[in-house]
Amino acid sequence: MSVKPSREQLRAHFLRAAVPMIGFGFMDNTVMIQAGNAIDCTLGVRFGLSTLTAAAFGQVFSNAVSVIAGGTVEALALRMGLPSPGFTPMQKKLPVVKRTALLGSLFGVIFGCTLGLVNLFFIDADRSHTLKLQASLDNLPSEETYEVEATNAKRPDGTTLTIRGPDRDGLLTSMVSALNTAGCSVVELHASPRHRSSTDSIAIEDIFVVTDQKTKQPFEEDELPRLAKTLLDASTAAHKMKNEQPTNNE
Asked: What is the pTM of this model?
């Protein structure tokens, strides 16, 4: 008849199962985040890959590194001198021992992956979006690009957003909707169509005065790039919708 393991034995068993998995979880998330971000900012921009696709490729690299470095992580865990539970052969077969190991591994990998999220503080999560947006704008003819200016210097009561570029059907609606979704209250709007000097096309110079929907105050300076990208996204989307409309060839 086997003797039930003591709490000290189970605690030592839980610890020996958890510690290696903390290392695995941390390494897995670190490689996935760093590799995924690198892929998103390079191949993602070059070939138009989505961020989710880049993350999937990052996970491939992460799994490969885990296989290669798995033995090293386990060896380092053993060198830490963790206490041995000292189970007898009969005790090792008990369900409580197996459940303890499972819970230890589960706790370790969750805790390690959570620690790995610290990598998010050291990368620019918006960089890939900016690069992709810039790449999409670079592919447009010069007469079809947009310029956005965001500043708090012009008005004390609101943030001023100025966009210049070609006029498109639905452009103004798209921009107002995007600003509302981004948490902006549009206080004033000045829409000024004008002819381009080099072509017969119509260009716009729309000026939005916006405030934060929650605080009713101008946005902080570090929020201005996000608002500018919001307008660029909306203008680019309106441009694509215009180009994708079917034409009548009759």
From this structure: 0.60
Q: What is the CA 230 to chain-centroid distance, rounded? A: 16
Q: Are 170 and 245 in contact (CB under 8 A)?
A: no
pLDDT digits (tens, 9 = 90+) for 79-99: 888 889 999 889 989 999 999
H or E stretch covering 145? none
DSSP state of 74: H
Measured at the alpha carbon of residue 101, what is the angle toward residues 10 and 23, in degrees to the nearest 5? 110
d(CA 180, CA 178): 5
The least confident of 26-30, 131-135, 143-147 is: 131-135
What single letter denotes the amino acid at residue 66? S
Q: Between 224-244 and 127-138, two packed helices, what is the crossing angle to 10 degrees?
A: 40
User: Which amino acid appears at position 52 of this protein?
Assistant: L
As a whole number of angstroms, the distance between CA 204 and CA 166 comes to 6
Q: How far are the Cα atoms of 3, 142, 172, 193, 232 from residue 240, in angstroms, in the given order?
A: 72, 15, 14, 20, 12
Whole-number percent of the chain with pLDDT over 70: 84
Q: Residue 47 contacts by C-beta under 8 Å, 6 or more apart in sequence?
A: none
pLDDT tens, position by position, 46-91: 888 888 999 999 999 999 998 898 888 888 888 888 889 999 889 9
Contact between 109 and 26 (Cβ < 8 Å)? no
The conformational region for residue 170 under phi > 0 = left, psi -120 to 50 = alpha, else beta, is left
Three-state secondary-structure class, residue 246: coil
CA distances from 115 to 28, 42, 103, 129, 244 (A): 11, 26, 18, 25, 45
